[in-house]
């Protein structure tokens, strides 16, 4: 398996097109994480089916969020994408998120070339409000059975803020 942090960088952050590696397909209750030290995907746990991921979930190579992991991505597609693929994705916003007291932001993206939607999604404002509500509900409650109240969606911010979060995460990676 390729070591994504060695063969890929974060992409063209200023241009809004980044590299994304898929960890968890939409609809899965498997918490699959990239193990940076071993350069493999690892099954961390199996969450209750009621908390299956409402979208594809992945990371941006050569980034480091404040929680110590690569910067997370919420990748919106009509169909699930398999673990282990990478794609070029268009940044459309950021979900500011805190998990057990640690900043754990999620960059919201769509495929850079999405002919199914005609590349209709360019910002969070282009998404159905119901989708934003579902994502917020999921991330506000997915740990409730283990540790209620430990996750908080603080806000949804625009593309410019998302790019700043990515740039800070790239710098943390370089400082590692």
TrEMBL record:
Catalysed reaction equations from the record: diphosphate + H2O = 2 phosphate + H(+)
The UniProt record lists the keyword Metal-binding: yes
UniProt entry keywords in alphabetical sequence: Cytoplasm, Hydrolase, Magnesium, Metal-binding
CDD domains associated with the record: pyrophosphatase
Binding site for substrate: 31, 45, 57, 142
Major place of residence: cytoplasm
Residue numbers binding Mg(2+) 2: 72
Compartments, as annotated in UniProt: Cytoplasm
Cofactor: Mg(2+)
GO BP annotations listed: phosphate-containing compound metabolic process
EC number: 3.6.1.1
Statement: the UniProt record of this protein carries the keyword ATP-binding: no
SUPFAM superfamilies for the chain: Inorganic pyrophosphatase
Listed GO CC annotations: cytoplasm
Residue positions binding Mg(2+) 1: 67, 72, 104
Top enzyme category: hydrolase
MF terms (GO), sorted A to Z: inorganic diphosphate phosphatase activity; magnesium ion binding
Assembly, per entry: Homohexamer.
Function: Catalyzes the hydrolysis of inorganic pyrophosphate (PPi) forming two phosphate ions.
PANTHER family in UniProt: INORGANIC PYROPHOSPHATASE (PTHR10286)
Family that this chain belongs to: Belongs to the PPase family.
The name this protein goes by in its record: Inorganic pyrophosphatase
Source species: Psychrobacter fozii
